[in-house]
UniProtKB/TrEMBL annotation:
Residues 1-31 form the signal peptide. This is NitT/TauT family transport system substrate-binding protein. Keywords: Signal. The keyword Signal applies. Pfam families: NMT1_2.
Amino acid sequence: MPKSFKTVAASVGLGLSLLAGSLVAPTVAHAEGEIRIAEQFGIVYLLLNVVRDQNLIEKHGKEEGIDIKVDWTQLSGGAAVNDALLSGSIDIAGAGVGPLLTIWDRTHGKQNVKAVASLGNFPYYLLSNNPNVKTIADFSDKDRIAVPAVGVSVQSRFLQYAAAKQWGDKEFNRLDKYTIAVPHPDATAALIAGGTELSGHFSNPPFQDQALKNPNVHVVLNTYDLLGPNSPTVLFATEKFRNDNPKTYKAFVEALTEAAEFAQNDKAAAADTYIRVTKSKVDRDELLKIIDTPEYEFSVTPKNTYPLAEFLYRVGAIKNKPDSWKDYFFQDAKPLQGS
């Protein structure tokens, strides 16, 4: 029997990462000219790295006639991000479409949380180091699958979507019992090291690419095969922040749009920015190889998010049915078109 994953948590830094994700203390609401942003781990947050590196919010704030103070926080998991947003600890939440739809549904008619923009289109891989796991049907009680947040993260929702396709809608949560909440860096280290009950990881780039360097790790599921090219990660905010801080909000949207154009048009510079801001140890050439493909598109316009929204309503995971992507995205000048 493999060792419990808990017994090796210290060796991969789990405790510190999880603790860091819970230490965002609530603060009171503030006036125009301040913005607090929460991001998570991976290349999917590269646009925020560019915004931070080039001080784009501050730049566009000055164009609006205000000086903007920007505060950056890193959390792990959509549940922690959603809690931080609702407690007033942050103003802009960075998380997957899964957490967005959960919080949109629960705040419908109240705080009215909606998405501001997409962070781009990226394939996510469900990985395993168990040679007996070829498809999702091969996971058993002996396996544990790491996700950022159990039942809420977009990885968890992708897994449920895949389970519904495999066994029908009534069995959509069939694999939830095998999932555990682990930050991407720690899950990657554990999957590569092996020897624990953690034999699966629903990952994101560049962690999935780093794990696949190990010959014992293989792809079980590619989300592009599941849904087609899609925007798995988004930024969202409360209606109150958007209404009370129009200049700050506009500066943020303009900054993000500029960052998307920069990253999409100069992926080499984008790779340098990611390494510089995150202090990642990833090899530059390998990182550039990952993002410099047609599969990776940096854009604020959401793509193919609605199938997941419709699925979550169909299986009862959310109570409010969105008629289209426009129901859970603020309708600003940007993004103009989406899905």
